[in-house]
Amino acid sequence: AAPAMNCRAEVLEVSVEGRQVEEAMLAVLHTVLLHRSTGKFHYKKEGTYSIGTVGTQDVDCDFIDFAYVRVSSEELDRALRKAVGEFKDALRSSGSDGMGQISLEFYQKKKSRWPFSDECIPWELWTIKVNVVNLANEQERQICREKVGEKLCEKIINIVEVMNRHEYLPKMPTQSEVDNVFDTSLKDVQPYLYKISYQITDSLGTSVTTTMRRLIKDTLAL
Amino acid sequence: AMDTDLSSQDRKDLDKFIKFFALKTVQVIVQARLGEKICTRSSSSPTGSDWFNLAIKDIPEVTHEAKKALAGQLPAVGRSMCVEISLKTSEGDSMELEIWCLEMNEKCDKEIKVSYTVYNRLSLLLKSLLAITRVTPAYRLSRKQGHEYVILYRIYFGEVQLSGLGEGFQTVRVGTVGTPVGTITLSCAYRINLAFMSTRQFERTPPIMGIIIDHFVDRPYPSSSPMHPCNYRAGEDTGAVYPSVEDSQEVCTTSFSTSPPSQCVFTVTKAHFQTPPPVVTDTLKVPVMGLAFSHQLSSSRLSYQPAALGVGSADMGYPVLFAGGLNAAHPHQLIGPGKEGGVPPVPSQPAHGTQADQERMCTPLDGVHYSAATPSSSEDTETVSNSSEGKCGSPHDLLETIFIRKVGAFVNKPINQVTMANLDIPFAMFAPKNVELEDNDPMVNPPDSPETESPLQGSLHSEGSSGSSTGNTHDDFVMIDFKPAFSKDDILPMDLGTFYREFQNPPQLSSLSIDIGAQSMAEDLDSLPEKLAVHEKNVKEFDAFVETLQ
């Protein structure tokens, strides 16, 4: 879905070897979520609340000369790994040139009256465009390890720049509204509500969705 | 309408936030340069002691240094807090790598809510700092420290000095937070030309015939420089005692309100905050000849866990065998054979600088080994009692024997003597008499700012990896357990694997350090004529000795 008018959109691009896809995606996603997660809220009387503590940990990449920091939450890590794993598999089996993108969208829920379903209003969208390269020999792989590591360093700096702009963030919710802003299902941390989706670009260089649209348009034009 | 002047409560809160933000900033930066992976746990219930809702450990020494630098002030215009990260090689060359600057500029944001927005943005800024500290070049360097160089930090307050970073340094901005009294900015200037590193390797002298040469004496940190190593032992506290952050008693129990701004509640409560007890160095108990023998590992780093080697009760020091051939009267004098019935007297306290001399002359004579006295030093200890060594008289006669940690040749710090546990051993009369407590043993409680490396350090993987001294090509090789063939040794209380692991990273030889190396070199040269004269005088004895060997 296209971002709404007030939704901030950031795009990052990386070229990686097949086996680096997962780690590169996790590095970026975890870095974003580090900034977009708080401790668990504990609401008390009179509309006040206290916030739990977020721990962090270093993660070393195996296929990239790179390390990053993520939130200490196994649940969150598992969720991201699952999404990234699916993305990687889709990339591999698509038969495309190895191009695709994975998106991390932060949204707010707006409750609607029955029979209308709740609206999801995105307020920040991160898109990582991935280009998978194939390397011929070990020497190239070694260079790729270092180069991708350097590139990821740049991406982290970019992410931090965006975070530092202190642009729109959802208002801190009351207890009744908290599930419309935050994902409260995890036991140790509380990220803003997010969803991860991905697209694989077919070999024509167009994403699958746009191909379909063009077909229909062309058909109708006849 | 809201009063745009800062209320006194807000002002107090803001000052406190800035102060603790500065302290946490320093912790994050230094911890990111320790050379190890950091891991803290999330906690859903607020503990009341985690500033900015982030689990960032407080290393007491680091807090102490930061407070010393700040001296009760806060970052303000023209007064920035800087954390300088530099690298120092084993040869003594040093180079500034990064300067992290926490600055304040005049741009004020009067509208912003202190107890809420500023606090949360400071928290966000710390998260950014966690992320950015891993992407500058110094991070990878610091993960590989230990073999040929160490990473040091220095905190200063005042004007930022970037001249030490060389030409073409780059800057990365971590972030800014506007406050009613100014805008806090956090950035890092880092050197990009890091191509100077040499790949000089240590040359390890192999143990000489049963003498275990202990290279792992901590080299005292040159007291002139205010630098501190990033990898140090936070646990042992009988050396320098740093008060745990005294304002840690003022913990920050954040309480936020979702009601209209005027009812924003922020409480700061006083509570007791105990830093966790220091980690005691693990030691290994290895039974030898039916008696328990304790020997202490030269672990010295913040989170070094010698898990592979087992855990025992903290006790004594390294087993070291014997050295021979020292003359009591004159440290420079050679011992000839046949003196005093084949038992060379044990020297008394030679001066520090000449010790290297002395050691060089150690040779086992006539197959006789006996304990050597070494100069005492107030910081070092060695108290070991052990089952007897095969080489020391008859093993069955002795219940205990003395082991001295013999300082390896060319190591520039002497260690002191060990006591005699049992006077029945041969040559007991030559054994030194002092006893020093384990508390003074630098292996348990290091001097203030030690600079040595731990044997197991030096690779990206913190557990069990066989750190290759040449760098990063073996990152994916993780050594789980090192079991060399035929490695069990009945005599020594450690097997080859343990030995190998422990002695992988010997500290720098003193002759390799510019100052001390030069010093002892000069002394060597000075003493040469003397030595030559002595040799000449004893030529006949030497010849006779040589005859006996043929």
Protein model, in words:
The complex is a heterodimer of chains A (222) and B (550). Chain A is an alpha+beta fold and 222 residues long. Chain A is 36% helix and 31% strand. In chain A, helix 1 (21-35) packs parallel to helix 3. Residues 197-225, 232-250, 259-424 and 431-477 of chain B have low confidence and may be disordered. Chain B has a six-stranded antiparallel β-sheet. In chain B, strands 7-9 form a two-stranded antiparallel sheet. Chain B is built from eight helices and 13 strands. In chain B, a hairpin with a 2-residue loop joins strand 10 and strand 11 (291-296).
List keywords for this structure.
heterodimer; A: 222 residues; alpha+beta; four-stranded mixed sheet; two-stranded antiparallel ribbon; 36% helix; globular; B: 550 residues; Cell Cycle, Spindle Assembly Checkpoint Protein, Chain A; two-stranded antiparallel sheet; elongated; autophagy (chain B); HORMA_dom_sf (chain B); Atg13_N (chain B)
Distance between the termini of chain A: 28 Å
Write down the overall geometry of chain A. Answer: globular
What is the CATH third-level topology name of the domain at 8-190 in chain B? Cell Cycle, Spindle Assembly Checkpoint Protein, Chain A
Number of strands of chain B: 13
Give Rg of chain A in angstroms: 20 Å
CATH architect. name of the domain at 8-190 in chain B: 2-Layer Sandwich
Quaternary class: heterodimer
| Relative strand content of chain A | 25-35%
Pfam families (chain A): ATG101
Subcellular location (chain A): Preautophagosomal structure
Family (chain A): Belongs to the ATG101 family.
InterPro entries (chain A): ATG101
List the helices and strands and how they pair.
The complex is a heterodimer of chains A (222) and B (550).
Chain A: E1 8-17, H1 21-35, E2 37-39, E3 41-43, E4 48-51, E5 56-60, E6 67-71, H2 74-93, E7 99-110, E8 119-133, H3 138-164, H4 178-181, E9 189-191, E10 194-201, H5 208-221
Parallel strand pairs in A: 1-8
Antiparallel strand pairs in A: 2-9, 3-4, 5-6, 7-8, 7-10
Helix pairs in contact in A: 1-2, 1-3
Chain B: H1 8-31, H2 60-70, E1 80-89, E2 94-105, H3 114-132, H4 137-143, E3 149-158, E4 170-179, E5 182-190, E6 228-229, E7 250-251, E8 256-257, E9 269-270, E10 283-288, E11 291-296, H5 355-360, E12 385-386, E13 401-402, H6 496-502, H7 514-537, H8 539-549
Antiparallel strand pairs in B: 1-2, 1-3, 2-5, 3-6, 4-5, 7-9, 10-11, 12-13
Helix pairs in contact in B: 1-2, 1-3
